[in-house]
Design goal:
It is a single chain. The strands form two sheets. The protein has a six-stranded mixed beta sheet, with helices on both faces. It has a two-stranded antiparallel sheet with strand order 2-3. The chain is globular, with a radius of gyration of 15 Å. With about 190 residues, the chain is of the alpha/beta class. The protein has six helices and eight strands, in the order E-E-E-H-E-H-E-E-H-E-H-E-H-H. It has helices at about 25-45, 65-80, 110-125, 140-145, 160-170, 170-185; strands spanning about 5-10, 20, 25, 50, 85-90, 100-105, 130-135, 150-155. The termini are close together.
């Protein structure tokens, strides 16, 4: 049976729940493209089945921020996903902040284990620093999913190098995540 991965391309193209901006890029555009590339990799691998939260770049989920988050969780639940993977870009008031990190409900458990492997492969693919796995039990998508859930902060949109890499080489991020998933699940 195929491993079911729900890819949540973080944020909407417009409010509610639009993402961060930096260096001339928008988070929702970057997460959409990387999500599409990851989806293609997973769908071409018989070990996986994937579903996207946003099937086209103009899809808006929800009429409020809370409703947008709820619809993402409901989409993963309806898909009966084995993993909820929410793609994001980080932001900081410090332009030098760089690297990738993963947020999970708890540092003990399957989501944290998967996140560590994904980060290892993603940082290997992109060359960005591995900032590690952090517990964020207050995040709605991490506490409301019944399956393991990860918020993957792929890089800093407020860092020129990170932002350019995410925008111009989305395949590096998708390939790193994909290789991490293959490694974790042993396929």
């Amino acid at each position: 049976m195929a491993i079911r991965i729900y890819i949540d391309q973080g944020h909407n193209p417009v409010n509610p729940n639009a993402g961060a901006e930096g260096n001339g890029y928008r988070e929702q555009d970057i997460t959409y493209r990387i999500g599409q590339e990851l989806f293609t990799l997973l769908e071409n691998d018989p070990a996986f089945e994937a579903r996207l939260s946003r099937s086209s770049p103009d899809v808006v989920l929800g009429i409020t921020n809370a409703d947008s988050l709820r619809q993402r969780v409901e989409g993963a639940e309806a898909f009966d996903a084995d993993l909820f993977l929410s793609l994001h870009t980080n932001a900081s008031s410090l332009p030098a902040a760089t690297g990738s990190e993963a947020l999970v409900f708890s540092l003990d458990g399957t989501a944290a284990d998967i996140a560590r492997v994904i980060l290892r492969y993603m940082t290997e693919a992109t060359g960005l620093p591995n900032r590690g796995v952090k517990a964020r039990p207050g995040l709605y998508v991490l506490r409301r999913t019944s399956m393991p859930a990860i918020v993957l902060e792929m890089g800093f949109i407020t860092n020129e190098g990170d932002a350019t890499l995410m925008a111009e080489a989305p395949g590096l991020f998708a390939r790193g995540i994909y290789n991490g998933l293959r490694s974790y699940y042993g396929v």
